[in-house]
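User: Can you model how dihydroflavine-adenine dinucleotide sits in this protein?
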Amino acid sequence: MGVLGRFMVTLTKCMPRFMVAAVARRYVAGKDLSNAISVMQKLSSEGACFTVDVLGEEISTLDEAQFFIDEYDRVLDAIVEHKLDANLSIKPTAFGLLIDEKVAYQNIERLLKNAAEHDIFVRLDMEDHRVTQSTIDIVLAMHQKGLTNVGTVLQSRLLRTRDDIESICEKIGGAADFRICKGVYLEHEDIALTGYQEIVDALNSHISQMLDRGAYVGIASHDLPVIDHTIAALKQRKMGPSIADPRDHASPARTGKGPGYEFQMLLGVRGNVRRKLAKEGHRTRIYIPYGNRWYEYSMRRLDENPDVAMHIVKSIFLPWTNRR
Ligand code: FDA
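Assistant: Here's the modeled complex, given as structure tokens:
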């Protein structure tokens, strides 16, 4: 995969922008908020709910954070106006986390307060290892201030994740609300697992650990062994669609959330699996990225993880493996 993946990355980077746009159209809702709204309205009929991501991350000056502050306010207004079943996903570095932590905290706190007024949840996406601890710290600090409409993402490839789950649950108990995923950033083997099977095993074990700790769990994976494990783990705990969360240490259900868990998938990826889960009654959430920085975003994802290029090629030439 390594050499082939890197070859595909190089090839994709040589493609003219309009060709990349044709491929990206499937994974990015469009350039504007209005595109994201149309996509969500269309996909609502598939029983899905959403999390909206304004494309962009690590900024180089604090002034750039203002764009994200304003744009996410517009997203909140649109969710309310169009009565969308949606919440927000934000990248803390786009709010200044790597430039000035104090300012980033203020920016994020302001957004959380605006979102809380409409009972809307905000997910802090997890970026690379430089910001793992500081992203977790933001969530804990906001909960301490009474802003509980926030949770973060943990990455199962990181060796620290089991301890992170324990320490977050110890501090905020059943109010802990996680998205758990493999992790898209290929981190150094000193701090991360590198093999497919060991990452799947870790992810499955983290899902069970989170369920046992009473946390809300957003399972963000398109991988069938992970989805199958989750369904078995839910059954074992007498959890499932249309069953009130039976765990006595869990928090009461929030607006827009499932009974202790939900499945999350990326726009354009394995829609057939998502629709099947929704039909079975599971809450399914689609990650909706939009924005005019789609090209830079797509190229950065390719650099971080050549597997993404392989997924895209597979979806073009072997579409049955990855249905919309
Ligand atoms: P795997 O990579 O094995 O994919 C299983 C199958 O799904 C593939 O064979 C392919 O068919 C399809 N597929 C998966 N990814 C695809 C893609 N990008 N394009 C096309 N097809 C694809 N990571 C992170 O570090 N921080 C974060 O905050 C998030 N947030 C996040 C939100 C949501 C909703 C999802 C679904 C994922 C993330 N991720 C993430 C990314 C995550 O860590 C992981 O890299 C991808 O989900 C791919 O891993 P899978 O478990 O899906 O399995």
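A couple of observations from the model: The beta strands are 48-54, 86-90, 122-124, 150-155, 177-181, 216-220, 261-266, 284-290. The chain has a mean pLDDT of 91.
User: Helpful, thanks.
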